Amino acid sequence: MNKTLNHRAWWMVLPVLILVAMNAVIPLMTVVNFSVQEEFYGEFSFVGLQWFADTLADERFQNALIRQLGFTFTILAIEIPLGIAIALTIPRSGVWASVCLVLMALPLLIPWNVVGAMWNIYALPDIGFLGYTLNSAAGLFGHDPASGPWFDYTQEPVAAWFTVVLMDVWHWTSLVVLLAYAGLQSIDNAYYQAARIDGASRWAVFRYIQLPKMKHTLTIAVLLRFMDSFMIYTEPSVLTGGGPGNSTTFLSIDLVKVALGQQDLGNAAAMSIIYFLMILLVSWLFYTLTMQGGKK
Amino acid sequence: MSLTLDTVSKVMGGEVHIAPTTIEFASGSMNVLLGPTLSGKTTLMRLMAGLDQPTSGRVFWQGRDVTGMRVQDRQVAMVYQQFVNYPSMTVYENIASPLRLRGFASAEIDAKVRAAAAMMKLNESQLGRRPLELSGGQQQRCALARALVKEAGLVLLDEPLANLDYKLREELRAEIPKIFEESGAIFVYATTEPHEALLLGGNTACLWEGRVTQFGATPSVYRRPTDATTARVFSDPPMNFVALSKAGDELVIDDARLAADFPTFNRLADGRYIAGFRANHLRIERGSERDLAFHCRVTGTEIGGSESFVHVLHGADRWVALVHGVHDLPHQSDRTVFVDPAHVYMFAPDGALACAAAYADAG
């Protein structure tokens, strides 16, 4: 069979190419451009990988990275098991299944800065419902109010972390629930019947039927939650602004401070690229490892 | 060992899924549940297994009432249309799983697993792999081996071959009577296909809209269906029917009169009947002088290799003829078709068998 060569077809993909170039390639290249040059009163000079070396050696960057990793692994360790547990309790069909799913989806529909503002007020030590309740409870257990509130996320790093983590769990566990639920729905009833006939325990059903069948959607859930939480900016920025001190300054917040606060473009560009490569590397590693496990 | 359902019924949401049914499966028997989709085969099996509780009636196992007993306490194994295996375990572990749950020693487990695997022709390398890496046929072999290894007294097979392609289905079906004989268990096999029931032999229960219309030895149910519904279910393509009345030695169909001087007809009283004959007995060429002839219109032909299905319209009745060879009859052409009176069943207007076809009694 003869293939007809028709180069005019390339024109058909041109709009897409332009679009991708405008919103991905060109901005990325701008960042790359900044990361290898020094700007001094409008004059640019090539500095090689100097910015990268500086950034990696910078203690401030290292601390933000440690905080970031701590945050991401904390919320993953809470949201994934919690999401699975909730998904297992949602009925498989019927009116209640729909009701549960709609309720679950609600937090996902709220804009991120609104979530931050909500929790900002909700957790305030004196007038916020959460802060007030916690402080009243602490008073009952013998905390002396004269020494200041027991729970104050605007002053105490531990309280700030607690609030940021709780906010993220509230906001994003639903996503894990929905994905885990989708995985559970794909399991044919015959599997549960077979397990009943075998006399398998509830745990065995979870371990040998539900978990393996949820594996692919859970992989996606972990990846999405990893990437999103690693890039988290809006909510903690509205809630704590990175404070108190630098205690909730995660990578994105630090990056914005460097780039916009200090106009340190070279440094910020190098940070962006390191940041981007880290997300890419971890996601790739995680995906490859879990998917290989399935094939072997 | 026997399984008895005593006037068992199942009603769900006001809808009758199983009408009161009494049936007894003898120890070590092969039993086929034959019926179209949604006729209640799976529901009946679930009641037998104890996965569902009957709305009324009792279930007896070896004479003991097991109606309320939990399924895991009964000696039941089940294989489904879907290939149900534990996805994260190897085939070996899958087959071993029912034994592990019951706490057998590893040496015993190993011996039983290998015996079941050998019977289902699963080799060493397949035992080490996960079910989803195997072909559909091998996955179902794994599920069958898992059912066998339990040495359950009751093995329920719910359309186990329906999801396999033709070749694998033939291959695996040939092995089922063999494993049945070695197991000594009561086998219950649900299928929608009459010829599968005939190949498996044993006994057949015909199901129609939640009712067992007839239960008996498979060939006798096939040859002597007690009513028109059973005859319809146990024929593929479905049996052809025509309403007629008998007057003396003539059969009157609408305004046509057919001379029908034939022993089985002559024994019938005059009156209204429904005549039925299977597709393979409807011919497009005259076979003998005594053949009944019908004027029909051809509505389509399907050629299936060595056989052709010829669809014809006789008045308002749709008939199918299954004939040898390739016949491509022109669409909408007129055609006379023939039936040997020896192949005609007569049913009363209410569907009960009035007289079986002569060939059935002869053979």
TrEMBL record, chain A:
GO BP annotations listed: transmembrane transport
Top-level lineage group: Bacteria
Organism: Thalassobaculum litoreum DSM 18839
Protein name: Glycerol transport system permease protein
The entry's keywords: Membrane, Transmembrane, Transmembrane helix, Transport
Keyword field contains Transmembrane helix: yes
The UniProt record lists the keyword Amino-acid biosynthesis: no
Gene3D superfamilies in alphabetical order: MetI-like
Pfam families according to UniProt: BPD_transp_1
Annotated transmembrane regions: 12-34, 69-90, 96-115, 122-141, 161-184, 268-287
Annotated PANTHER family: GLUCOSE IMPORT SYSTEM PERMEASE PROTEIN GLCT, TREHALOSE TRANSPORT SYSTEM PERMEASE PROTEIN SUGA
Subcellular locations according to the entry: Cell membrane
GO cellular component: plasma membrane
Record-stated family: Belongs to the binding-protein-dependent transport system permease family.
Main location: membrane
Residues of the ABC transmembrane type-1 domain: 65-286
Membrane topology: Multi-pass membrane protein
InterPro entries: MetI-like, MetI-like_sf, Sugar_ABC_transporter
TrEMBL record, chain B:
Keywords, sorted A to Z: ATP-binding, Cell membrane, Membrane, Nucleotide-binding, Translocase, Transport
InterPro entries on file: AAA+_ATPase, ABC_transporter-like_ATP-bd, ABC_transpr_FbpC, ABC_transpr_MalK/UgpC-like, Mo/tungstate-bd_C_term_dom, P-loop_NTPase
One Pfam family, short name: ABC_tran
Gene Ontology molecular function: ABC-type ferric iron transporter activity; ATP binding; ATP hydrolysis activity
GO CC annotation terms, alphabetical: ATP-binding cassette (ABC) transporter complex, substrate-binding subunit-containing
Domain called ABC transporter: residue spans: 3-234
Gene3D superfamilies in alphabetical order: P-loop containing nucleotide triphosphate hydrolases
Domain of life: Bacteria
Family statement drawn from the similarity comment of this UniProt entry: Belongs to the ABC transporter superfamily.
Matches recorded under PANTHER family: MALTODEXTRIN IMPORT ATP-BINDING PROTEIN MSMX, TREHALOSE IMPORT ATP-BINDING PROTEIN SUGC
Protein name: Carbohydrate ABC transporter ATP-binding protein, CUT1 family
Organism: Thalassobaculum litoreum DSM 18839
Organism ancestry: Bacteria, Pseudomonadati, Pseudomonadota, Alphaproteobacteria, Rhodospirillales
